[in-house]
Specification:
9 helices; about 0% strand; mainly alpha; about 260 residues
Length: about 260
């Protein structure tokens, strides 16, 4: 009986912890969004965050997208050749990259690079009392530290996904024409025939949501960190893991909303 009560108590503590965490995250997110539209504004900080999240993530996103498109074309050919459906490779590559692989892989790469950096920076500021010093100087930390990152990430990731879409399709084109013997003209015609604006737009909508989530989890975990250097490390790990899981979960939800009628 005591063991059963202990199990129920432990389960209740977990449920309460999840509810408390969800509530804190929701309040943090709403507060951060409100400060985006509330003066004072910090264009210099927004520009700096945009450079950190967008520009400096270009190499890793570009390489990831290029090689993903190449592998996708190669694997599609291996499977489709068994059924004589090699002509469908171009459509599979362009649809997969624009709808799913572009935004998801770009989001995961940016979460690992920029999300971790945001959590580490804010976590260091928290454990060294710099965030408290901002409040002492009558500067709202949410407006100064969080809101610019949320806005910059929401704008930067769709732009990165545009590049990822182009390079992913290009990677498939290179493999199909240089290795698999496809006609470049026929491949391009098939690609543009199957490329729809709604597919691209759905990927960009996903990218904007993913960018917001990456910045939110990076700032949230860094803002709440405690315990010195160990706490900063824990916050950084939590930011990357939580953002990655949320990206995959939201990808399913957004796909359900955007494509399943």
């Amino acid at each position: 009986m005591n063991r059963l009560l202990g199990l129920i108590e432990a389960l209740g503590a977990v449920v309460l912890g999840v509810i408390e965490f969800t509530g804190e995250l929701a309040i943090f997110a709403v507060s951060g969004v409100l400060y985006i539209f509330r003066p004072p504004y910090y264009p210099r900080l927004i520009g700096r965050a945009f450079m950190e999240i967008g520009y400096f993530s270009l190499p890793v996103v570009a390489l990831t997208a290029l090689f993903t498109g190449m592998v996708l074309a190669l694997q599609s050919y291996t499977g489709f050749s068994r059924f004589g459906a090699e002509s469908a490779i171009a459509s599979v590559v362009v649809l997969s990259v624009t709808r799913e692989l572009g935004p998801v892989l770009a989001g995961l790469m940016v979460a690992g690079r920029a999300g971790a950096a945001m959590a580490a920076e804010l976590g260091t500021m928290r454990v060294t009392d710099q965030i408290d010093a901002l409040s002492t100087l009558s500067t709202q930390p949410m407006g100064y530290l969080v809101a610019p990152r949320l806005l910059a990430a929401t704008i930067a990731l769709p732009l990165l996904v545009v590049l990822a879409d182009i390079l992913g399709v290009m990677g498939g084109f290179l493999v199909a024409t240089q290795k698999l013997g496809f006609s470049s003209g026929a491949y391009l015609v098939s690609t543009f025939t199957n490329l729809k604006s709604e597919d691209v737009m759905s990927g960009l909508i996903k990218a904007a949501v993913f960018g917001f989530v990456i910045a939110l989890m990076g700032c949230f975990n860094g803002y709440r960190s405690k315990g010195g250097a160990e706490g900063v490390g824990t916050a950084t790990t939590s930011a990357v893991v939580s953002a990655s899981i949320l990206i995959l979960a939201l990808d399913y939800i957004l796909t359900q909303v955007l494509f399943v009628k």
